[in-house]
Design a protein that fits this description.
This protein has 246 residues and is an alpha+beta fold. Helices cover 28% and strands 30% of the residues.
């Protein structure tokens, strides 16, 4: 780590700028969950700020579960929080109980040109590609969910090889472990659609069956969009999308 302090922007609270620089340091340095960070005093000198300013920035990252303080040991990148990832899944059954569907079948993985909506939602340039995973997921009662997952091709070029025969229930866990990409937030759009003939075949339904479509963008630590996921779910048995705070 360089000993030369970085120039601090004069506009806006300094601690907010320090917070973003710390996030960038974690990302650029390839720090994974559990990795130690430099001591607070060293970080304060590096950024050329008072210890109190540095600690205010750290406090925000601790609150966001990005960094954790361990008494007597120092600062660490927070370990992957499976429960937090599970909270981002918001489809529940008729009684409001959440059950994560299993990763069932891979219908295809390919690299292709990004479409207009994918470029918009993932912030991609016109000539950039995406890696697309199409898969089915199954609930305990046998109901099938159909998903298309698009990832920036430049960052996930070897996705097919890394996934191999793995079928992780939580892909966000896979991103964290394999790519150091931690998902910290999502933005969802919902609409009612009718099953196409191909969708109906994979889901065991008839063509034209009403479905809930959830289009979700997932964001990593620095608020960059990193995944565009389109989920099709049959709600006729009472399943629904439940948006909850926190």
């Amino acid at each position: 780590m360089s000993s030369n302090p970085l120039a601090v922007r004069e506009h806006g609270p300094r601690y907010l700028w320090i917070r973003e620089q710390l996030v960038r340091m974690i990302l650029d340095g390839g720090f994974k969950g559990g990795a130690p960070l430099p001591p607070e005093g060293q970080l304060a000198r590096h950024f050329g700020v008072a210890l109190g300013t540095l600690r205010k920035a750290i406090d925000e990252l601790v609150a966001r579960k990005i960094v954790e303080r361990v008494q007597g040991k120092g600062l660490f990148v927070a370990a992957y929080d499976t429960q937090a990832a599970m909270r981002l899944f918001r489809i529940v059954d008729a009684s409001g109980v959440k059950q994560l569907p299993n990763f069932d079948r891979v219908l295809g993985i390919r690299t292709r040109a990004a479409g207009a909506n994918e470029r918009l939602r993932l912030g991609l340039a016109r000539d950039e590609k995406v890696v697309e995973l199409r898969r089915t997921r199954t609930f305990a009662d046998g109901a099938v969910m159909l998903e298309s997952i698009c990832l920036p091709g430049s960052r996930f070029a070897d996705f097919k090889a890394r996934l191999g025969t793995q079928r992780p229930v939580l892909l966000y866990d896979f991103y964290e472990q394999e790519y150091g990409v931690r998902i910290v937030g999502v933005e969802s759009r919902l609409r009612a659609v009718s099953a196409t003939a191909d969708d109906a075949k994979e889901m065991g339904l008839r063509a034209g069956h009403p479905l809930l479509e959830v289009e979700r963008v997932a964001f990593e630590l620095d608020a960059r969009p990193v995944e565009l996921r389109t989920t099709l779910c049959d709600t006729t048995e009472g399943r629904h999308y439940l948006d909850v705070p926190g």
